[in-house]
TrEMBL record, chain A:
UniProt keyword Transmembrane helix, yes or no: yes
Transmembrane segments: 12-34, 70-92, 99-125, 137-157, 178-201, 237-256
GO biological process: transmembrane transport
Domain of life: Bacteria
Keyword Oxidoreductase: no
Alphabetic keyword roster: Cell membrane, Membrane, Transmembrane, Transmembrane helix, Transport
UniProt family annotation: Belongs to the binding-protein-dependent transport system permease family. CysTW subfamily.
Pfam families: BPD_transp_1 (PF00528)
Organism: Planotetraspora phitsanulokensis
InterPro entries the record matches: Bact_Polyamine_Transport, MetI-like, MetI-like_sf
Classification via Gene3D superfamilies: MetI-like
Cellular component annotations (GO), alphabetically ordered: plasma membrane
Topology with respect to the bilayer: Multi-pass membrane protein
Entry protein name: ABC transporter permease
UniProtKB/TrEMBL annotation, chain B:
InterPro entries: SBP (IPR006059), Sperm_putr-bd (IPR001188), TAT_signal (IPR006311)
GO MF terms, alphabetically ordered: polyamine binding
PANTHER family per the UniProt record, alphabetical: SPERMIDINE/PUTRESCINE-BINDING PERIPLASMIC PROTEIN, SPERMIDINE_PUTRESCINE-BINDING PERIPLASMIC PROTEIN
Predominant place of localization: periplasm
Protein name: Polyamine-binding lipoprotein
GO biological processes: polyamine transport
Keywords: Lipoprotein, Periplasm, Signal, Transport
Entry GO terms, CC: periplasmic space
Pfam families, per database record: SBP_bac_8
From TrEMBL, chain C:
Species for this entry: Planotetraspora phitsanulokensis
Transmembrane segments: 12-35, 70-91, 103-125, 145-174, 195-217, 253-273
Name used for this protein in its record: ABC transporter permease
InterPro entries xrefs: MetI-like, MetI-like_sf
Nucleotide-binding recorded as keyword: no
Domain ABC transmembrane type-1: residue ranges: 66-272
Amino acid sequence: MNRGLFRGRGLQIYTWLVIAWLVVPIAVMILFGFNDTRGRFNTTWQGFTFKWYGQLFEIGDLTQALVNSLLIAVLTMVIAGVLGSLIGLALGRYRFRGAALLTLVMFAAISCAEIVMGASLHSLFITLGVPEGFPTIVVAHVMFSISFVAVTVRARVMTLDTSLEEAARDLGANTWETFRLVTLPMIFPGVLAGSMLAFALSIDDFVITNFTAGSTVTFPLWIWGVTRVGIPPQVNVMGTLIFAGGLLIAVGNIIAARRRRA
Amino acid sequence: MNDFRNQDPALLRGMTQRRLGRRDAFRLAGLSAAGLALAACGVQGKRVAKPSSSAQAQSAVQQYWSGKVKNGHVDFANWPLYMDPKQPELKQFTDQTGITVTYKEVIQENAGWFAKIQPLLAAGQSIDYDLMVVTNGIQFTQLVELGYLVPLDHGKLPNFAANAGARYKNESYDPGNVYSIPWASGMTGIAYNPKYVDTPPTSYSALWDPKYKGKVGMMADSQEIGNFGMFLLGIDPEKSTPADWEKAAAKLKEQRDAGIVRKYYDQGYVDPLGKGDIWLCQAWSGDIFQKNISEGTDLQFVIPDEGATIWTDNMMIPKTAANPVDAITLMDFFYDPKVAGGLAEYINYVTPVPAAQAVIKSDADAASGDDKKTLTEIADSPLVFPSDADYAKLRSYRNFKNTDEQKQYENIFQAITTA
Amino acid sequence: MRTLRARLTPYALIFPGGLWLAIFFVVPTVVMLSLSLQSGNVVDGFAFTFNWHSYVDGVTTYHDQIVRSLLYGLAATVIQIVIGFPVAYWIAFKGANRKSVYLFLVLLPFLVSFVLRTISWQYLLSDNGILLGPLRDAGLLPQDFRILATPAAVIGGLSYNFLPFMILPMYVALERIDPRLLEAAQDLYASRVQTFLRVVLPLSLPGVFAGVLMTFVPASSDYVNASVLGGTNTTMIGNVIQNQYLINQDYPIAAAMSFTLMAVLLVGIFAYARALGTEDVLEVAAR
């Protein structure tokens, strides 16, 4: 069946043009990871090479920044994943006083301008004399990720049938057993999706991190710092590898979804 | 960037609906009150009194350094383009002393760096670095006023005593080198790309020339850009008054509003200059030299006839440093003429060690071909070894009497750069 | 006992996360408000003095930047709707069984760091770069033509960076439209244009509305695009806040501007929601 009003040949070309526009900067990034540049200014094409893949970890601070970013993202994923899932479960399953307030605060956190969140956290830390660094970055990332996890998990919880849990209890399972054996497996796709979202938000965050990092440097902050003297090709290579990793996970997801449908 | 990757209509409803009951409003207010109580305490500053006598200063030095020992490691925070990326000097230092060095190019601007470390130092926390390089100027003065710097034990600086040039032993911003010794000096002048600029600029007025509309880069730093405006008007920045600042700002505003300035840069002007995005700009002497070496570009640097700004970047130890003995050992190491010579050969900034000139000359004699030519040029370069006549044309930043005066200055020039 | 426990369960569940949000989201906002009312400087410290002047001074000094931010945000949002709507439409109606693939392609930029993407544009748009260089050499552009360091570059960067947030909700709304509605309209002799204007467009509005909310806030509060792609007279309020907090350490002005930005955005969102009659549109979206 031909849906829609227009035949769509032109629209199809248009869509592909927009997608091309979206992808151009990524292509440039990947390409310049293969540039045989000699100086520290990787801006003119000088020939094809694989050497930067071999010298990926030559720049100590860059590697450290990437490790920091990954550690922060994993910690955020775990902490925000757990705390957010608990909130999502409560909001999706129970009616209780204060739920509206909590929802409002979460929506405010989601829709708040990042710079405002970063600025307020920075205000808090300088007022209390809390030294900024790795821990404060984690605190900040968990803060802005919790709401996203909670919303994702709540959506999952709301689609669930409570009769399975009732059945488990009727069969003699206690609260914890019911949770562990029935509820958790059922909401797990939501928890996983929410946690992965938290990971993605954390690893790419620049603005809030910039306000809470002190002298700790993450991958985006490092890139930001070296823009003034030229970005070494290793950054392009790391960007490419992160891109490829995300691509693999996403493609895997799409294929898995297809298979389930088939 | 806010990520709204999952689309939840309920989320939007929550954002736009009035759902908050009165009870909730009270709860929110209670929480806010708690926050306010906590916030009312303010942000602490800690101005410290200057030592009033040399005996007092001496005892401060003794008090700090007694019991401090070598730990075998030092964390060094410096600016980009300030050392050969292969770090030969640091390797030599480790071979010689057994002290390992972690070198990071984390300082991109004085104010930004100060803002980053100030809250940590105020809380008495480590900034993760034992040694850092800060320019003479507003932030250096604040570091001293707040007591954030370690008074140096000159007994541990024999090379400095023996080899530092007289000029660098008596800088007005730190008389007697109580807290700092110079890393390198440099000039802020005009850099241009000869591919686009046919006549070498000789005056600041070149930066106001309408034929370079949209192709001129200026610096965002208020001390740097302020000095340029004053040089153009023939005002000595060191002796300038607030009225002079206003006059200079008016000139700079004119330059901006005529569309001549493309952008106000931090150190990021180097790359656009090479690419031709800008044709001429405010620049630091050594940056241009290093860009040419690493990229094979042919950028030029000139000191205009009106004179230029000279600044000194200084090594210093923050008071919360974990390895002060290792840090001061490294500071002194850079005053070995051989080391200073090697460093100057690469970075092409003014070295505070005059004896380095002989070292570079003998390196030149030993070299051949292009290397020989380059090294000879460096040894004779007024940008690395300025003559007294050169120095006579150079001016420092304005020293400020107090924070109010400094704020006034910053406000005048930031109104230009952040419009 | 059991009922009490059941009643307490949700509170136990929300406690840790709720506390986290309270301490690190709600309280800091109040602290920032307090900071904006303090006076002092870094060397002597800051003290609470009910100093309203930060707001007055800030708005006087930076009203251009505030207005510019809102205009840039608005421009980027409109551009995103214009660019994104046909894409969302095509994927929703013609994407067939490849919809998820197309959506994935639209989301690809999110796999690359935001900062890196923006810097990539700086490279691409450079005056003698791979886009403009050849065009100028071929005589197609005037000699002094440039994109980088102009408002167009900043708005373009903002549009690029947040476009997927616009396409996604519009797609969701369009995807929900029952194709039988279109058939019905055509059976009743509505022309294609009429059908589009009378049926598709109204039904897609909730998605457009959601997209605007999701792109306007981050676009108008951004400072990365303005500092990487902008030039003179392109400073946004985000740059001012960043600069005052992290460079100048003039905390009261910084906090006052940050608070002002938050207030302006909130008022804008609520006014916008009211004008469009949120309830109705969102009910549609919720279905």
